[in-house]
Amino acid sequence: MIELPKAYSPQETESRIYKLWEESGFFNPDNLPEADKREPYTIIMPPPNANAPLHVGHALGITIQDILIRYQRMNGKRALYLPGTDHAGFETQVVFEKKLEKEGRSRFKMEREEFYKEAWDFVQANKHISEEGIKRLGASCDWSRNTFTLDPRIVEIVYETFEQMHKDGLIYRGERISNWCTKHQTTLSDLETKYEERTDPLYYIKYGPFELATVRPETKFGDTGIAVNPKDARYQQYIGKEIEIETLLGPKKIRVIADEAVDPEFGTGVVKVTPAHDAVDFEMWQRHKGEIPGPLPVIDRYGKLNEKTGPYTGMKVAEARKKVAEDMHAKGLVSKVEENYKHNVQLCYKCGTIIEPLIIPQWYVAMTKPLPDGRLSLRDTAVQAVNIGIAIDDTIKKNKDIDTGIKIIPDRFRSVFLHWMNNIRDWPISRQIAWGIRIPVWYKNGEIYVGKEAPEGEGWEQDPDTFDTWFSSGQWPYATLMARGEKDFKTYYPTQVMETGWDIIFFWVARMIMFGCYKTGITPFQTVLLHGLVRDKDRQKMSKSKGNAVDPLGVIDTYGTDALRFALIFSTAAGNDIPLVEDKIKGMKHFANKLWNIARFILINDAGVIPSSKPKAHTDADRAILEQLSAVRESVSRNIERLQLHEAAQAIYQFIWHDFADVYLEASKLQLKNENKENTEQILLHTLCTTLKLLHPFMPFVTEEIYAQLPITDKKLLLVEEWPA
Fold first, then answer.
1. How far out from the chain centre does Cα 175 lie?
2. What is the pLDDT of residues 83-139, one digit of tens each?
């Protein structure tokens, strides 16, 4: 008789079992039995921030990824789950700068090399935190392939891609309106800003014969034109003419242009054109370069008015706005004010500082420019990859199911993806920060050289900017495999599933598709599986500032990893946001205990019995449980294959709790006392053994611990047992 302890203790079990898995070597797919005969199956882990502890969103993603890997490994695949961490450029720099502020220091008073070294040491000292969190979540990933986005070979691949894109004319240095954060002194992409509704005064100001509305009178000094809609009958006689206006700095002449972008219904249908401080105005100026002067910057990088504004020089924008408005009132240049005008204001997504649209030279990736060899643009390539798939190299395509486009689950995000791609703009990839991969461009006396090292000769200076983090992480699927050599790349690329949150489909997924197709000639993954955001009980977004964030490791300390994993998966379909409450996690802890008690009952009563793979049914109860077991096996397998993990979880939960525990175990108590005793013991053990295998991808620790106690000959770790057939 084998007797389990009365209660299952994840706190005493999980670290021991994870160590057992690691020491087995089976996380490395090359060590699996007959590995060369197995079909590869690859998931690349979206790399969490190396500097930060995991949040509950990471726990959800890692759980989903690990379920798929464990299932495929048990189904005989050469399953690679490749882990990694991200240097997270701007985000990590913001965190590190806060640390410096607490110490009374600033990066702006440090040498670049000094700042970078301190940031590197800071990240390395904390890197183990996220990695230990990944392990505690039970991720069966191959730690021998663990990769950091600043690993030398990754940096080299990123540089190679940049150089190749530059040669193909897809990289250019441009002066356009940038989203400038005056606090962090860097530009941000459109995706790195957020919008917030604000209430501000809307000033109606006099411009010669016109009246126009603006919330930013302080930018008036940078006006280079006036625009009306060409179909607006009110202003036809002024189009193309130069008018004289009165300003706070004296009289000025300015030309009137006609542009379709002007909304006749907004304000008075007349707008001032300020190309140095508004993206729409900048584009309008580009359409009318022969008619109005170019950009006239009047706000500097620190959010202060410059010398072109006369007495307002040195004032911060908010202060200047108020003062300019007062002075315009006094001079009779304001006709009226709408005090409670509601409009959206663009903010830095990290600090909430209002974005200043400034013309800052940046490196851009051309998104809609065709390649010189006749290939489609990056944008059109990604659209084709989603619609019909891309596979240029038949040696890579061999044995890879990529004859159709990338599947996006849930399907509703496919149209969202395509809509965004159709409206995409060129991507600014340079950031004015020190932490990250420095842009490999060198300057000397007006010359420009692109390469990871400066050319021979003195006097070359490297561009001070670094890459946007997404430029390097967008290359993650192929870079992580190329970094380990051609064999890994040929074996495990393209990957099967890219699982991540729906909120970064544009930040990351779109860019991985574009980079992957450009660099390798093949779609980087077959399926994109998107999970939702984990929210609190009131469906509010979790955040530390709200005090409603769930610490996944704290939950594990209390309830165990299996309970958290199963709670995250159980009730919500892919792509939907997940309300997570403690009672749900506690309920799954009870489920783990239920399974433990089932196993304890069976092992006490089945002394010395070895389970049969095909037990016979002698009673109605026997027939029912074996039929139900066959049905749940098919249901779990089918739903995992369909990536409907919540349905698979619900099916196995219902079977274990109700069909097995509530019904058959109760019936077995009588059968164990009659002539069917031995057969009942066989059915109990067979059902338990099969159930543990079906549940293992979801709740790996408790199932492995129970399986280790079963009286099975030639038993392996459940980690590498065969999936029930």
1. 29
2. 999 999 999 999 999 999 999 999 989 999 999 999 999 999 988 899 999 999 999
Residue 174: in which H helix or E strand, if any? strand 171-181
Calpha distance 289→183 (Å, rounded):
32
Cα pseudo-dihedral 387, 392, 398, 403, rounded to 10: 20
DSSP state letter for 435? S
Q: Provide the domain count of the chain.
A: 2
The C-alpha angle with vertex 421 and arms to 417 and 426, in degrees rounded to 5, equals 140
Q: Which two tokens stand for residue 114?
A: 């000094």
Pairing of strands 334-348, 250-258: unpaired
Neighbours of 45 (CB within 10 A): 25
Cβ neighbours, 10 Å, residue 543: 11
CATH of the domain at 192: 3.90.740.10
Look up tokens 């369909």; give the residue: 642
Tokens representing residue 301 in the block: 């990088």
Q: Sign of the CA dihedral 79, 84, 90, 91?
A: positive
Secondary structure (DSSP) of 457-506: SS--EE---EE-HHHHHTTHHHHHHHTT-HHHHHHH-SEEEEEEEGGGII
pLDDT at residue 541, rounded to an integer: 66
Q: Which of 312, 335, 360 is the last residue of a domain?
A: 360
Residue with token string 């050289």: 449
CATH number of the domain within which 615 lies? 1.10.730.10
- Give tens-digit pLDDT for 590-643: 999 999 999 999 998 876 667 666 888 999 999 999 999 999 999 999 999 999
- pLDDT given for residue 250 in this prediction: 94
- Distance CA(364)–CA(382), nearest Å, equals 18
Residues 665/669/671/677 CA torsion (nearest 10 deg): 100
Determine the Cα–Cα distance for residues 452 and 446; give it in Å rounded to an integer: 19
Q: Where are the alpha helices (DSSP H) in 250-352?
A: 279-287, 317-330
Q: At 113, which helix (H) or strand (E)?
A: helix 112-136
- Confidence at residue 403, expressed as pLDDT on a 0 to 100 scale: 52
At residue 364, φ and ψ (nearest 5 deg) are -120, 155
Distance, CA of 435 to CA of 121 (rounded, Å): 12
Two tokens, residue 690: 């099969």
Angle at 600 between CA 594 and CA 601, to 5 degrees: 90
For the chain, first and last CA: distance in Å? 29
Q: How far apart are CA 21 and CA 720, in angstroms?
A: 10
Q: Which of 360, 395, 429 is the last residue of a domain?
A: 360
Q: Are 206 and 116 in contact (CB under 8 A)?
A: no
Q: Residue 508 gets which letter from DSSP? A: I
Closest CA to 696 of 684, 681, 710: 710
Is residue 297 situated within a structural domain?
Answer: yes
Task: Classify residue 602: in a domain, yes or no.
Answer: yes
Other CB atoms closer than 10 Å to residue 199's CB: what's the count? 10
Q: Please indicate, yes or no, if residue 585 is contained in any of the structural domains.
A: yes
Q: Which residues contact 111 (CB under 8 A, 6 or more apart)?
A: none
The string of DSSP codes covering 614-681 is: SPPP-SHHHHHHHHHHHHHHHHHHHHHHTT-HHHHHHHHHHIIIIIIIIIIHHHHHHHTTSTTHHHHH
Amino acid letter, residue 170: L
For the chain, give the longest Cα–Cα distance: 110
Alpha helices in 571-619 (DSSP H): 582-605
Strands 525-531 and 407-409: parallel
Residues of the chain with pLDDT under 50: 393-402
**What is the rounded distance in angstroms from the CA atom of residue 530 to the CA atom of residue 632?**
25
Residue 409 · residue 529 · CB < 8 Å: yes
Helices (H) and strands (E) in the chain, counts: 22, 25
- Backbone φ and ψ of 194, nearest 5°: -130, 165
Kindly state whether residue 512 falls inside one of the protein's structural domains. no
Structure tokens at 27: 């996380």
Which domain does 615 fall in, by range? 560-568+578-720
